[in-house]
Amino acid sequence: MNASHPHYALGHDDSELERLTNQSRFLGDITEHQLGLAGLRPGMRVLDVGCGAGDVSFLAARLTGPDGHITGVDRAAEAVERARARAEDATLTNIRFVAGEAEHLELDAPVDAVVGRLVLMYNPDAAGLLRRLRRLLVPGGLMTFQEFDMTRTASEPTCALFEQTMDRVRETFRRVGAGVRTGLQLHQIFVTAGLPAPQMIEGARVEAGPESPAYEQVAGIVRTLLPALERTGVATAAEVDINTLAQRLRAEAVALNAVIVTPPLIAAWSRNTVE
């Protein structure tokens, strides 16, 4: 999740950047599948908006191959430095990362695709952002974004702690001004931005058993949000008991032999029309 405006509540310290990397591993298969369906192909020039520590950029590089070129942009210099170091460690020479606001970015040449994941939920004018990003696309170029619908988590049988925890996460995001249903709003956002009505698809992680990474994922976002939970009056640190939360989530699900569904990731994609 990457900032586009002051409602971004998660910060960019080392622990949060590490959480974002872990989250990207958790969502990686869904994101890569959705990018492939949207039309990322070998040789494309791609702009990754709100690139954070670079995970979506790396997926885009895999899909576009050695002849592709990826530019990642993020307003957080700390995230960009982490992304650059990771690219250098992986000896990826066809990726560059830029610190700055995506809507003010200037490129040497237009790109074939603009992509982003968990960016628009933090922007109060998501359609305006896409409208400005269109100027960076070639005619007929691809615009694709992926966002959560945070209102549709589930557990079966019902896991009371998991449901309570997700309620707290959703309410905190609402109170800090972030969108919790942005995934379902992508159609409207694209059309308002002047793009053709997008194709859309949804994917979600369905998890069970003691080895699932989902418990740490949920506890990780709560840990990052904890100051905002307290500041907005959603819950106190004592009520959350963050140091045992992942363990308790796991124990509950295992005891009930339950399945939990984390927020679905919805992708939308459309082609830039010639004006």
Give the arrangement of secondary structure elements.
Blueprint (H helix, E strand, L loop, with lengths): L13 H25 L6 E5 L5 H10 L4 E6 L2 H13 L5 E5 L11 E7 L8 H8 L3 E12 L5 E3 L3 H16 L6 H11 L6 E5 L2 E3 L5 H18 L5 H4 L1 H15 L2 E3 L3 E7 L4
Parallel strand pairs: 1-2, 1-4, 2-3, 4-5
Antiparallel strand pairs: 5-10, 6-9, 7-10, 8-9
Strand percentage, roughly? 15-25%
Report how far the terminal alpha carbons are from each other.
Answer: 32 Å
What would the principal axes of the Cα set say about the shape?
A: globular
Give the strand order of the largest sheet, numbering strands 1, 2, ... along the chain. 3-2-1-4-5-10-7
Helix content: 40-55%
Largest sheet: 7 strands, mixed
- Overall structural class, as computed from helix and strand content, comes to alpha/beta
Explain what the structure shows.
The chain is α/β, with parallel strands linked by helices and 275 residues long. It has nine helices and ten strands. It has helices spanning 14-38, 55-64, 77-89, 126-133, 160-175, 182-192, 214-231, 237-240, 242-256; strands spanning 45-49, 69-74, 95-99, 111-117, 137-148, 154-156, 199-203, 206-208, 259-261, 265-271. Strands 3-2-1-4-5-10-7 form a seven-stranded mixed sheet, sandwiched between helices. Helix 1 (14-38) packs parallel to helix 2 (55-64), helix 1 crosses helix 7 and helix 7 (214-231) packs across helix 9 (242-256). The protein is globular, with a radius of gyration of 18 Å.
Please outline what is shown here:
The chain has 9 helices and 10 strands. The longest helix is centred in the N-terminal third of the chain and has 25 residues, at 14-38.
